[in-house]
Write a structure and sequence with these properties.
27% of the residues lie in helices and 27% in strands. With 365 residues, it is of the alpha+beta class.
Length: 365
């Protein structure tokens, strides 16, 4: 696939200043970062956005790109992109942590030592009022944690695991043989200790020697104003424990979605509501009190309103994420035609039809 122009990717004009470049990247990165956006194309979109920012935020690279296009900047590798972006500087003020997770797979800074634990993802459903005002929500997470009685070692207090005799503590068994003048080694996990390198003769009673126990945590999650549908918030260190003692736990990712609301349907920062009108109100016009997130509001419905007309209440929607501007509330006006009529109503409608027929006859002359 042909690469898109970097300015097009960030939605910028070619004379945009560095502040505009930074703001555009921040907005798009918050939307498409794969740790927050689970859409199938989010990863590719984020790579494209990051590459464009990496070039346009560097004055020298930008000049070369402006003069010679992609040939001026050469091949851009993922390590070069993410290793040169200061996520803390860009997003620190918003209370998010872009370290770890997906970004670490492309960063030059890889953690040393025991492997990191895997991540956990949970769903959090919030009301529209929480999106409007932000605030704290609680999530419950049940996960294995390090056993405090044995400190994750798995052995009963006062005892220690002993080195495995079968593999001499390596956790591996190596079989060597020569074939056609070539020495071949076959390495496999030690069957005696399961690759642990040690054997526990007296397991801890609390965790039965596993070094882990299940525990439920109640965590407070700070939901930002204008949180977007499907956005994923990261809580470092509350994922699965490492597979090895001393390893860092993974992270907890909280996927935020909006609970169903009988009053409104959310569409990004905008809200939609259907208002039903009788025929008389559509013809003659009326005033109607409608709910908003800020309390009831009175709207004027003009005479001659057609079915499925839409009225807009500016600034009565949800806040845009990361900004003070609010979306709008749209009212879809649905005209309801009565299915049955009383005798007086039928008489009035018949009189109206006669009047319309006479008016149509006069107009045709």
């Amino acid at each position: 696939m042909a690469k898109r122009d970097y300015y097009e990717v960030l939605g910028l004009s070619r004379d945009a200043d560095q502040s505009a470049v930074k703001d555009a990247f921040r907005k798009l990165a918050l939307k498409f970062h794969p740790d927050r956006n689970k859409a199938a194309d989010a990863e590719e979109r984020f790579k494209e956005i990051a590459e464009a920012y990496r070039v346009l935020s560097d004055p020298q690279k930008r000049t070369e790109y402006d003069e010679r296009g992609f040939d001026g900047v050469g091949a851009v590798h993922p390590e070069d992109i993410f290793g040169g972006i200061d996520f803390e500087d860009l997003f620190g003020g918003l209370g998010f942590d872009f370290g770890g997770g997906w970004t670490d797979r492309f960063s030059r800074r890889r953690p040393a030592g025991p492997p990191r634990g895997s991540s956990i993802e949970v769903d959090l459903h919030v009301a529209l009022e929480r999106v409007l005002n932000g605030g704290v929500e609680e999530v419950r997470v049940r996960r294995p944690v390090t056993c405090q009685r044995c400190q994750g070692g798995g052995a009963k207090a006062g005892t220690s695991p002993r080195p495995c005799d079968a593999c001499t503590g390596s956790g591996r068994q190596v079989k060597t043989k020569r074939k056609g003048g070539v020495t071949v080694q076959h390495i496999q996990v030690c069957a005696a200790c399961g690759g642990a390198g040690s054997i526990i003769d007296q397991p801890c009673e609390a965790c039965q020697g596993s070094g882990r126990v299940d525990a439920e945590e109640v965590l407070s999650v700070s939901v930002p104003v204008g949180v977007e549908e499907g956005m994923v918030l990261r809580i470092p260190g509350h994922g699965m424990p490492s597979s090895e003692p001393g390893g860092i736990p993974g992270d907890l990712f909280v996927a935020v979605s909006t609970t169903s609301d009988p009053r409104f349907v959310r569409d990004g920062p905008d809200l939609w509501r259907t208002e039903e009108l009788c025929v008389a109100d559509a013809v003659l016009g009326t005033r109607r009190e409608v709910p908003t997130l800020d309390g009831p509001a009175e709207v004027s419905i003009p005479p001659g309103t057609q079915p499925e007309s839409i009225l807009r209440l500016r600034g009565k929607g949800l806040p845009h994420f990361g900004g003070a501007k609010r979306g709008d509330l749209y009212l879809r006006l649905r005209v309801v035609v009565p299915e049955s009529l009383s005798a007086p109503e039928r008489k009035l409608y018949e009189t109206l039809r006669e009047l319309e027929q006479k008016a149509g006859s006069r107009r045709s002359r």
